[in-house]
Amino acid sequence: MKARCNHCKHNLAYKKGGATTHLKRHLKLCTPRKATLVGKDKGPKQSLLSFDVTEGDEMLSIFTYDKGKVREELVKMFVVHEYPFRMVEHEFFTKFCRSLNPKYEPIKRQTLKHDCMKMYISEKESLKLTLAGINKISLTSDLWTSNQSIGYMCLTGHFMDSEWKLQKRILNFCPLEPPHTGLAIADSISECLIDWGIEDKISTITLDNASSNDLAVRVLKENFEAKEKLHFGGKIFHVRCCAHILNLMVQDGLTEMRDVIENIRESVKYLKLSPSRLYKFNEIVKSLKLSTSKRLILDVPTRWNSTYAMLECALENKSVFSRYKERDYNYKWLPSDEDWKRAAEVSKFLEVINDVTKVFSGRKYPTSNLFLRQIWKVRKMLNDMSTDNRDFVKRMTLKMKEKFDKYWGECNLVMAIGAVLDPRYKMKLILYSFPKIYPADDFQRHIDDVLESLEFLYKEYLSVDSQINSSMSSATYDSNPSQAKKQKTDDFDEWVITNSDIIPGNKSEIDMYLDEGVYKPGNEEYEDFDALNWWKANSLKFRHLSKMARDILSIPITTVASESAFSAGGRVLDQYRSSLKPETVQALICMGDWLRQDFGVELASNVENEFMQEG
Questions:
Q1: Which residues contact 256 (CB under 8 A, 6 or more apart)?
Q2: Which of 294, 326, 472, 498 could pair with 313 in a Cys bridge, judged by C-beta atoms 3.0 to 4.6 Å apart?
Q3: DSSP letter for each residue of 60-77
Q4: SS (H, E, C) 439-501
Q5: Pick from 419, 378, 385: which is nearest to 246 by CA?
Q6: pLDDT value at position 293?
Q7: Helices then strands, each counted (H, E), the chain
């Protein structure tokens, strides 16, 4: 008869009613059993060795299991990758962790949640210290409703760090009680700013074009003005989301093409609903030896970019649809030749808008100098389309022009000043594009507004150091009494004056900057040109203007940063975790954003896409 050790699975001799001393002796010596009794075994332990790599050199050191460090890293893993708390209790998660280190002690989901909230408070205090050293912060905000029918407001702060790197951090992801009026939004934002201690640092706020947001901006602006903390004289305090304006404009234009788009949409839907139909369609594609690798895409009607993707794929396969019709008499939505021509025209227009939107919503943080040129592309396209003789193009263009003029009929100063502060453009882009964007009797007014606002903002930055500079120059003059003698001119000085161009001694940095020629980077460098790096390199030459450029170029033109948090909100508050409390949701969303920014981690837009990439 044999006894078997439950820890190492070793078989030992055993007789019923016999001695057990040798079994006890084995338990004392059994290594796997010792590993499970963390903290319980009182005898001497064998030290574990580990390799520490420091600056490329490997050093042998004694490994010490740190329970606190393990739980800290566990919190970061769950928050950054948005894993559900219950996963920490999964049997095979525990087995996996123990395979890495037998000393791992399992924890409960409640413990993990408690650790998350504790780290959130710690990280928030650390971020508060960072924001305390920032002079100006721009905000973006948007609203979202969860599957619990709870309204959430996301508030994101944008700022420039000491290394001239653009930074953004989600400050709040908090519930907002209905009704979502402008006053409620303004009060919620104010509470957040006071909580973070940055109520006097806000320079701009970017929102979409809802009427409630207009009221919220007016209330906030009055509050800042009353405290004399309204930066830039309030000239650029409210920034309208350019991506939202483009979306409204395109949706209005597409209403004139509803019948054509509907035919293509129903065609794609009919094919995709049946595997046999789709197989038959793909067989025709192969027989025609079409080079396209794009599969049919069914759009989401409220998202024009998905409509563009659907049209693009359908147009590449348009010859297949007519042949499929010959094989399936139940197919009733075949677009006519005229429909295909109209669809091609719409696709060409949407391609331009799609390229512009990619700049607005790019993963690489777009600075405000990039947007005016993109808006000019849209206006140029509308101008070209307005000369088309076809009725459907005229109707579509008229609707989009109305929306363009509604929101961009008045000059967007952030975009315009941002373009001037791009050394590749300076005033050249303004002088070139404004006569084409605005009416002939009005474009000069907008140019003058840009120059006036540029001068106004520059003087605001200049005033900070003006008293110091004045006292320093006064002290220098008084300490050198011979200065007056040096002001006398002789024949040489008179000759220089009459034969040279004299640069005024009081010439401002703006005048110097604009009088210089535009900067022309090489062809390969042009698209990747970073205006912030240029200003950083020239900060000694333009001491005041570079500070102004740093703040203006960091102003966000879209609410994309806040809207992207809603994707995370949808993942955190999925159908299995709908019971999470709002304060827990805020901690997970905010801390997840902070840690991903700190560690440079990019999260897939959704889990399905993440796994599709593996295939």
A1: 392, 395, 396, 399
A2: 294
A3: EEEE---HHHHHHHHHHH
A4: CCCCHHHHHHHHHHHHHHHHHHHHHHHHHHHHHHHHHHHHCCCCHHHHCCCCHHHHHHHHHCC
A5: 378
A6: 67
A7: 27, 9
Q: Residue 154's CB: how many other CB atoms inside 10 A?
A: 27
CB 75 within 8 A of CB 116: yes
Q: pLDDT at position 612, please?
A: 32
Joined tokens for residue 584: 């827990």
The separation between CA 532 and the C-alpha centre of its own chain, rounded to angstroms, equals: 18
Spatial distance between the Cα atoms of 234 and 231, rounded to a whole number of angstroms: 6
Q: What pLDDT, on the 0 to 100 scale, is given for residue 358?
A: 85
Strands 151-160 and 137-145: antiparallel
Token readout for 70 is 């393990």
Q: What is the pLDDT of residue 544?
A: 93
Radius of gyration of the chain (CA): 33
Question: Is the peptide bond prior to 179 cis by the omega test (within 30 degrees of 0)?
Answer: yes
Going by DSSP bridges, is the β-strand pair 57-63/166-175 parallel, antiparallel, or unpaired?
A: unpaired
**Distance from C-alpha of 204 to C-alpha of 556, rounded to nearest angstrom:** 9
Q: What is the structure's pLDDT at 41?
A: 46
Provide the pLDDT for residue 568: 60
Contact 580, 85 (CB under 8 A): no
Q: Is the dihedral of CA 573, 579, 585, 587 positive or negative?
A: negative
Q: How far apart are CA 567 and CA 563, in angstroms?
A: 8
Other beta carbons less than 10 A from residue 615's beta carbon: 4
What tokens appear for 457 in the block?
């903002």
Give, in order, the Cα–Cα distances in Å from 112 to each of 118, 200, 443. 10, 36, 60
* CB-count burial class (<10 Å; 0-12, 13-18, 19+) for 281: buried
Backbone φ, ψ for residue 159 (5° rounding): -155, 170
For the record, the structure tokens of 114 come out as 């408690």
User: What confidence score (pLDDT) does residue 18 get?
Assistant: 74
**CA-based angle 411:412:413, to the nearest 5?**
100
The pTM for the full model equals 0.80
**Splitting the chain (615 residues) into consecutive groups of 10 residues, what average pLDDT does each group show?**
80 77 82 65 54 56 82 95 92 94 92 96 96 94 84 93 92 92 96 96 93 95 93 92 90 90 94 93 89 81 88 92 93 93 91 88 75 92 90 91 89 94 96 92 94 94 66 51 52 64 71 93 82 95 94 90 66 66 91 92 53 33
Q: Residue 336 phi/psi, 5° resolution? A: -75, 170
Residue 612: count of CB within 10 angstroms of its CB: 10
Cα pseudo-dihedral 559, 142, 160, 362, rounded to 10: -30
Phi, psi of 245 (to 5 degrees): -65, -45
Write down the pLDDT at residue 185: 96
Spatial contact of 369 and 422, defined as CB atoms under 8 Å apart: yes
DSSP 558: S
Tell me the helix, strand and coil percentages in the chain, rounded to 5.
60, 10, 30
For residue 297, the 8-state DSSP code is -
- Polymer length in residues for the chain: 615
Residue whose tokens read 């006894």:
3
The pairing of beta strand 166-175 with beta strand 151-160: antiparallel
CA 103 to the chain's CA centroid: 41
Distance between CA 90 and CA 405 in Å, rounded? 58
Q: By the 8 A CB rule, do 71 and 84 touch? A: no
Specify the pairing of strand 202-207 against strand 137-145: parallel
411 DSSP assignment: -
